[in-house]
Amino acid sequence: MPTEEDSADSSVPTAVLSQGDESEDTDAAHVAYNTGIPISEVIDHSKDENAEATSLELKQQGNEELVAGHYLKAVKLYSEALEYTPTNAILLANRAQAYIKVENYGLAISDATAAIEHDPSYAKGYYRRASAYFALNKYKAARKDFRKVCQLKPKDRDARAKFAGCEKAVKEEAFSKAIVSEQTEPLSSTYKPDNVAIDSGYDGPNPLAGGPTTNMDEEKALFQPGKLPMEFVMVSCWLAVVSNGWCCSLH
Prior knowledge:
CATH topology of the largest domain: Serine Threonine Protein Phosphatase 5, Tetratricopeptide repeat
Strand content: under 5%
CATH superfamily of the largest domain: Tetratricopeptide repeat domain
Radius of gyration: 31 Å
Number of strands: 0
Number of helices: 11
Largest sheet: none
CATH class of the largest domain: Mainly Alpha
Number of domains: 2
Shape: elongated
């Protein structure tokens, strides 16, 4: 799938969301959803006499900003254009691309999904969503969308290459999960202190006056803040210093 944005002479695909004529409320809802503006603040320009021409002009400006690397400006222009043609799949896919450039993959997926809903045959909608999914390491979802792009554009080498990359990533992920075993798990998740055998002959420092205990609840209670005897703490620290060959003084 080529990365260039759709040219200014592209048609404006739309999709009928409900049977019959759409109401003004439905048009406003389209604008609110596709621009992120609360519906109470929406100024619906879709009924304007020159809505198509204005949208096309704003899209061209957005494309120029996108190519120039001014991604947030492009997002703003595409959003303004969507106020005039709220079901324009090309605009939604282009804005998704701008969001991908600024690593806002969640909004990119939302825009690409909307583009697909408005025009299920528009390959770039699937391509944008797949790219965002891949960036989030959601390889299975990305693979599904790239497969759809390959079906819509069977001669597209870029789409086939991306699909193959997803296939490889999915297999590698599955292989990594398959080789996980107890030997590869971190000690923090496998160590069970309750299973440690306590030597009854131990005569070193112990926080309990009666010596080692097998009552784990009693021992855990000692390690609450302020519960350990100071003498035990100091002796333990001293033994740690001596056993490591350090030279220091305790005060």
